[in-house]
Design a protein that fits this description.
Number of helices: 3
Shape: globular
CATH class: Alpha Beta
Strand content: 35-45%
Largest sheet: 4 strands, antiparallel
Number of strands: 4
Radius of gyration: 15 Å
Number of domains: 1
Order of helices and strands: EHEEHEH
């Protein structure tokens, strides 16, 4: 396993259609190499002093740490939530070919 600057970014959206649209926009901008959409998750959280209980879609975005600032800008522009989840989890290692593919598919150019 090789050293990498890959990260997995987690976010949630209200439904699969929103998630597909969002991931496609990030792919077009080359901010992510892949978005894995996991529908049917349940999120419980406090929002505006009330307990929320929502069915959501979790999206795992595979990218590089250098793309996080671009993702932050894209989230502000494209994500439909008022306060979207954007959690970047560093990847400590992985299959060289996969890590190379992430690098090849992402751009660090400011978009």
């Amino acid at each position: 396993m090789g050293h990498t600057d890959a990260v997995v970014v987690l976010t949630t959206l209200a439904n699969t259609d929103e998630a597909v649209k969002f991931v496609k926009q990030l792919l077009e901008r080359r901010l992510v190499a892949c978005g894995t959409i996991m529908p049917g998750t349940r999120s419980l959280y406090r929002w505006e002093d009330k307990l929320a209980d929502e069915i959501e879609v979790v999206v795992m975005l595979k990218t590089r740490s250098g793309a996080i600032h671009g993702l932050e800008r894209a989230f502000k522009e494209l994500h439909p939530y008022k306060v979207p989840e954007l959690l970047a989890v560093p990847v400590s290692g992985g299959l060289e070919r996969y890590l190379g593919w992430i690098n090849d598919e992402t751009s660090l150019t400011i978009v």
